[in-house]
Design a protein that fits this description.
The complex is a heterodimer of chains A (580) and B (334). Helices cover 46% and strands 12% of the residues of chain A. Chain A is α/β, with parallel strands linked by helices and 580 residues long. Chain A has a 4-stranded mixed β-sheet with strand order 5-12-6-15. Chain B is an all-alpha fold. Chain B folds into 2 domains: 63 residues, no CATH class; 250 residues, MetI-like fold (Orthogonal Bundle), CATH 1.10.3720. Chain B is built from 15 helices and 2 strands. In chain B, helix 1 crosses helix 9 and helix 6 packs across helix 9. Chain B is flat and about 80 Å long. The chains are: A alpha/beta (580), B mainly alpha (334).
């Protein structure tokens, strides 16, 4: 009897739970099917909107626009990096995103929704969204190979015909980027254009930073050669007690991360042949960490030597580079020197490295940029960024609002938009320097905290402009050193000069798509593994570790890319070693 | 022996019982049968629907392993896998096995799973046996609860804990060792040490939770057996060896068979969170390979081929282990 009762109760519970689940499930499945049908009808509605308006007499043009504004409200989604900043605001919902949303609605009657992806895993995140057919209408990434991979599978819209038809929608974008940059990724063979390159307005790239106050304390001059730099590191290590007191055991003379190719870029580039031809640079240029360049091995050998001398952070290779462990260490004042973005210690206002150090250890405590990696000619050769080519904007095939998306690109290319996003309202996040007239960026006060810029100068929002861009180039240049709050503009100015000294602009080569770059064998992973293993190898094992890693990298597709790039160069430029 | 078996089976056999009745039901009319047991079938309905929707329907995408994946086409219209237009439906299997990274991942998967099995399988049994011998209830309960806890931590957290503890210089253990003037231990940066760390973290995470089923099984053993053994003068160890262990043997066998089915599989989070560039040669397993090459680089067909291979091998392991356990006189899981 008891058993029967129990089973009835149980089955009743189950029926109830089924019933309870149903309403939850039902809308979900409905949603899914409705988005599916939307996707499927994408192509047909597009053609519909083109023909429809001729019938409608209410004067909206073929795109459904009247006076440059959509008659019916459109809805687009836009990718936005989330840097998860300490003390920042919610990436997808703050005063800036709301301003953009208001402006787009007012100007074009387009609703904008931001889809945030983590800045430090953006490639993976956007890849996951694309694979799930869930990507925002406007996407951007630094990795062109990734876009090409999706394009090959029919996942990306060809922008060549789109731009041809709608050039009148995006005059500011053409003004800002220019024909050459917009069509830089045009495939000469097929005439396809999968992405529009962005433009860098600040081309400084990388700097070596060293603790100025430590140098002073130990009576050392700023290093100007590799040997002097090494001597400084040794001095830091030997004088850890003086410099750090009770924390002496935490001393890290030189800090790197698992991304060795980036965090040793100054060293690597100083070992490269300064007379390298454009062809050689391009052929080896798939890897932006210069793994296969001609001097890289010797550069890493130097790091290996330093590692074995105890000058490099021992735990770098087991620490996840996407965490803030290393930054925290630098901010805590345990690190003597590092190589990073040319403005790295100035980023983040009150939380920037230099501001944090100064608040703890006094005004003298700061990192300054130095040039100490001489090439074989005694110059400080390094590569800056090229003006042309930055983040690449593309529309996934699921984008069913192409015109509205173009309007967004137009809006984000307009100089007033960019200037507002970068400098905001006067008094809130900038003031004007009385003496020079320069725009001085400051952190917003607590009342205006919602205007906090999660990325410096909001570069994550100005998707086709990376770097300060004010109304005139003169003002821009003047204001550059003032564009970091809570740090000394003189330090910024010095860093800009250091990063510009003997800097070479990498050649911009346009030879079409390289199929081998889409093979997908995790070359970047193999490169980093080799870099990391080579740095920590014993000096005797260094050659073996490096050569094995290189063989593996080339075998896994590195060589195929080099060969295809060579062939593509020769097909376009013939025997020439340099760009015309 | 036979008697103990029957008693001990109870806790695990609950679900099997239903099935068994379905197969060997009484020879009365079908109508009567349904009338008598309909509640049980009703109970079974929801899990069956779940299996159908989430496990069986998606299986049609196995076809992707033999096709060229296209983002913008329905499954049936995607072309068959081809090399330069000539159809070769095993193209992606050939690519996978031709890829040294895949072979390495395959080897590592089997290796790490075997280590897990050898170290991780007996741990909860031993723990359950030890707990069972503890006389103080309160202490026993506390130990049990503490041992369960790691099960609820995600691998991401465990991995960062392990970095805090085991990092070469800043890790707690190594900085203590260094302060005592001893040599540090490369827990995370040396491949062979890493494997030990990996396996031990796995054992630590799961032995408490895994012991629950054995404790339940031990609780089901007839206490009269222990009393009789005491009368005969058996000591603690003898009772453990001759009563407790045989009593939970069927549970052990069922779990072992199921574990063998996972020898080719294994989770993604644990190796992904624990790996680093220095130990990648031993740490890359199929699931991380599939994530990196398949999902991130959109090689969907390749990924599906690898997944299919994994499942088929897993199935053979499961069937094989089941057959062996039946041969040895134990009941398998089917």
């Amino acid at each position: 009897m008891k058993k029967k009762l129990l089973s009835i109760v149980l089955s009743a519970a189950m029926v109830l739970s089924v019933a309870a689940c149903a309403p939850k499930d039902a809308p979900a499945t409905q949603d899914q099917t409705s988005t599916k049908t939307e996707d499927q009808t994408t192509t047909t509605t597009d053609t519909d909107t083109e023909t429809e308006p001729e019938v409608v007499s209410n004067e909206p043009d073929a795109r459904g626009m009247l006076d440059g504004k959509f008659v019916d409200t459109r809805h687009i989604s836009v990718e936005l990096y989330d840097r998860n900043v300490d003390g920042g605001t919610e990436a997808g919902n703050n005063a800036w995103t709301q301003w953009i949303q208001e402006q787009m609605l007012e100007r074009y009657n387009v609703e904008v929704e931001f889809v945030t992806v983590s800045r430090w895993s953006e490639g993976d995140d956007i890849g996951n969204l694309l694979a799930a057919q869930n990507a925002p209408d406007i996407c951007y990434t630094y990795n062109y190979g990734q876009i090409q991979t999706y394009a090959d599978m029919g996942g990306v819209i060809d922008l060549a015909p789109v731009l041809e038809e709608n050039k009148d929608l995006v005059p500011s974008m053409f003004d800002w980027l220019g024909e050459e940059l917009i069509y830089q990724d045009l495939d000469p063979a097929n005439g396809t254009l999968w992405a529009i390159e962005g433009k860098r307005n600040e081309i400084c790239r990388i700097n070596t930073f060293i603790r100025k106050d430590w140098l002073d304390k130990l009576g050392l001059a700023e290093p100007t050669t590799k040997q002097e730099f090494e001597d400084c590191l040794v001095a830091f290590k030997d004088n850890a007690d003086t410099l750090l007191g009770a924390d002496a055991s935490k001393m890290v003379p030189f800090s790197i991360s698992t991304d060795v190719g980036w965090r040793a870029a100054n060293i690597i580039e100083s070992f490269m042949d300064p007379d390298i031809t454009d062809k050689e640079y391009y052929v080896n240029g798939y890897d932006d960490r210069k793994f296969t360049e001609n001097g890289t091995k010797e550069a890493i050998r130097l790091l290996n030597k330093w590692y074995n001398m105890g000058l490099i952070w021992k735990d770098f290779a087991v620490t996840d580079a996407s965490t803030t462990t290393e930054d925290d260490m630098i901010k805590a004042g345990f690190v003597g020197a590092f190589i990073h973005n040319y403005d790295y210690p100035f980023r983040g206002g009150k939380d920037s490295i230099n501001a944090t150090l100064q608040s703890q250890y006094g005004d003298d405590a700061k990192f300054i940029a130095v040039n100490c990696f001489e090439d074989k000619n005694g110059n400080y050769t390094k590569y800056s960024y090229s003006n042309s080519g930055d983040r690449k904007v593309f529309f996934p095939a699921t984008n069913d609002e192409i015109e509205a998306s173009l309007c967004y690109l137009e809006f984000i290319s307009q100089p007033e938009t960019v200037e507002f996003l970068q400098t905001g309202e006067e008094g809130v996040i900038h003031t004007v320097d009385a003496a020079t007239g320069a725009i001085v960026i400051q952190a917003p006060d607590d009342d205006h905290h919602d205007w906090y810029q999660n990325s410096g100068k909001n570069i994550d929002m100005t998707i086709n402009c990376n770097g300060l861009r004010l109304s005139t180039p003169e003002l821009t240049e003047l204001s550059l050193a003032f564009s970091y709050s809570d740090v000394d503009p003189a330090d910024v100015q010095q860093a800009i000069q250091a990063a510009s000294l003997d800097a070479k602009i990498p050649p911009t080569v346009s030879v079409g798509d390289i199929a081998a770059e889409t093979e997908g064998t995790d070359l970047a992973g193999k490169r980093d593994q080799t870099y990391d293993k080579a740095v920590i190898a014993s000096e005797a094992d260094f050659d073996t570790v490096w050569d094995n890693g290189m063989t593996e990298y080339l075998g896994a597709g590195g060589q195929a890319i080099i060969d295809e790039r060579t062939a593509a160069w020769e097909a376009t430029y013939g025997d020439a070693d340099m760009l015309p | 022996m036979g008697n103990t078996n029957a008693v001990a089976e109870k806790p695990v056999a609950g679900k099997l019982k239903n099935k068994k009745k379905a197969y060997t039901g009484p020879k009365k009319s079908f109508k009567n049968y349904i009338k008598r047991y309909w509640q049980l079938y009703l109970l079974l309905l929801l899990p069956l629907v779940y299996l159908l929707i989430f496990k069986y329907l998606p299986m049609r995408y196995i076809l992707l392993a033999f096709k060229e994946y296209k983002l913008n086409m329905p499954l049936m219209q995607m072309p068959w896998a081809n090399v330069k237009k000539s159809v070769d439906i095993f193209k992606y299997f050939k690519i996978a096995f031709g890829n040294p990274d895949f072979r390495r991942a395959l080897f590592n998967t089997v290796k790490l799973n075997l280590f897990d099995l050898v170290c991780g399988f007996p741990a909860p049994i031993l723990f359950a046996l030890i707990l069972n011998e503890l006389p103080f209830k309160g202490f026993k309960k506390t130990v049990q609860t503490i041992a369960y806890m790691p099960h609820f931590l995600s691998w991401v957290i465990i991995a960062s804990l392990s970095t805090q503890l085991f990092a070469p210089t800043d890790g707690m253990i190594n900085s203590l060792l260094a302060k005592m003037g001893l040599n540090t231990i490369p827990f995370l940066d040396d491949p062979s040490h890493w494997v030990v760390t990996y396996v031990m973290m796995g054992v630590w995470q799961s032995f408490g939770w895994g012991s629950i089923i054995y404790l339940a099984s031990i609780a089901g053993i007839n206490t009269e057996l222990y009393e009789a053994a005491s009368v005969d003068g058996a000591n603690r160890f003898q009772k453990m060896w001759h009563i407790t262990l045989p009593g939970i043997k069927p549970t052990i066998v069922v779990l072992l068979v199921m574990n063998l089915g996972y020898i080719m599989g294994g989770g993604f989070e644990r190796p992904f969170a624990m790996k680093n560039n220095l130990v990648i040669n031993v740490a890359e397993v199929i699931s991380t390979f599939v994530y990196k090459v398949g999902i991130q680089q959109l090689k969907i067909s390749l990924t599906t081929a690898v997944g299919l291979f994994q499942s088929v091998v897993g199935l053979f392991f499961l069937l094989g282990a089941n057959a062996i356990s039946r041969k040895l006189g134990e009941r398998g899981i089917f």
